[in-house]
Amino acid sequence: MKSQIDLLVGHLLNGSIFLQEAIEILEKSMIAGALERKEGNQSAAAKQLGIHRNTLQRKMVDYGLGAGRPHVRRKPVARASSPRDRKSGTV
After folding, report:
1. Number of domains in the chain
2. Whole-model pTM?
């Protein structure tokens, strides 16, 4: 495995790829591969990658992987209080 990585590093250096671009290529490929292996299960993919699920979701948005836009959890709507629940002192 190390020899394969060394060959890849050589190709990247010969191709004038900057470090940040190489990191992004590797990260995007690993995320896409983990999601494919885990059949889209983000929690399992994050665990395989050794990162938090929220970090995975942020990176998916950054790299344009997956559904495009993250799921937004909304707060439940508060129930309207009845007149007897008020603390006004009169009933």
Report:
1. 1
2. 0.67
